[in-house]
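help with this record:
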Amino acid sequence: MWKPNATVAAVIERDGRFLLVEERILGQRKLNQPAGHVEHGESIVAAAARETLEETAHHFAPEALVGIYQWSPPERPELTYLRFAFAGAITGHEPGRPLDDGIEAAVWLSRDEIAARADEHRSPLLLACIDDYLAGKRYPLALLRDFDRTGDRIDALTEAV
């Protein structure tokens, strides 16, 4: 049965530079936003904060939804990713924290530096999210309505912090 993969990404800008990760995938270095899959029982907003911490050692507070993206890798068309990209603020850093397996480094790059390394992009979503962010696309987190198993609404902002 086909089902899309729900993923999140953090678009974090500071002084014209974006926080990215360099990761090793099948022996190749790739660039991506701090990103990953939503875990069972986790809100989408909380997943973005968790993935950012695990991949960069930076605490991230999502403040707005930049966009929702759908993509299937050409080499694996049976896969579909639904990416929820968030803009927000860094609220802390744990420099000694180990990064997720496969993550080689967290780096700050300008949009031009990112574009110049297009052959290293993990997917076309990397630059699409940044360009939407630079175009000012921001949507309120209230668009995302998370419910627990009992049907009660979860306050995504409180849970993510």
Q: What stands out?
A: The chain has one domain: 5-150.
